[in-house]
Write a structure and sequence with these properties.
Layout: E1 12-14, E2 18-23, E3 26-31, H1 33-39, E4 42-46, E5 53-54, E6 59-65, E7 69-73, E8 78-83, H2 85-89, H3 93-96, E9 105-109, H4 121-131
Antiparallel strand pairs: 1-2, 2-3, 3-9, 4-6, 5-8, 6-7, 8-9
C-alpha cells in the first residue's frame, strides 16, 4: 500500500522534490512523497556507483515508473557512500516508504553550506501549494 502524504520536519527539501536527512557530515537522500505520487509505481531505479561524486542540482541517477522516466536531482554535493540495494531490487519500496526504507543514496557532503539553499518542511509544503 502506498504511503500517506507527509513531509517530515527533520528533513531538508530540494525544489525538484528530493529530500536530505543530515547526520553529521553525511546525508541520506531520496524522493519526496509528492515525487513518488506524481510518478506512480516505480519499476526501476538506476543508482550512481558507490564512490562516485555527485553535484548539487545535477542528475545522479534515475527512476522509472509505469508513467515516465525521471532524473534524480541531487539536493547536495558529495561522495556516494552507499546505495540502497533494496530499492534497486524492489523499486516500489519508494512508493511504500519514501522516507524510511525507500531512501536512495547516502553521501558524505563535500560542501555543507549547500544546506542553506534547501527548504524546510514548511517552505516545501508552501512550494507544493503554489504548484496546485
Amino acid at each position: 500500500m502506498a504511503a500517506s502524504e507527509s513531509y517530515p520536519d527533520d528533513l531538508r527539501y530540494h525544489p525538484e522534490h528530493d529530500w536530505a536527512r543530515i547526520e553529521g557530515d553525511e546525508a541520506t537522500m531520496g524522493v519526496t512523497w509528492y515525487a513518488q505520487d506524481s510518478l506512480g509505481e516505480l519499476v526501476h531505479y538506476e543508482p550512481p556507483d558507490v564512490g562516485a561524486t555527485i553535484g548539487k542540482d545535477t542528475a545522479y541517477g534515475e527512476v522509472e515508473s509505469v508513467k515516465a522516466v525521471s532524473d534524480l536531482i541531487a539536493p547536495l554535493s558529495g561522495e556516494v557512500l552507499a546505495v540502497n540495494q533494496k530499492v534497486v531490487d524492489e523499486p516500489e519500496t519508494v512508493n511504500d516508504d519514501p522516507y524510511g526504507e525507500g531512501w536512495l543514496v547516502r553521501v558524505r557532503m563535500s560542501n555543507p553550506s549547500e544546506l542553506e539553499a534547501l527548504l524546510d518542511a514548511a517552505a516545501y509544503r508552501k512550494l507544493l501549494e503554489d504548484l496546485a
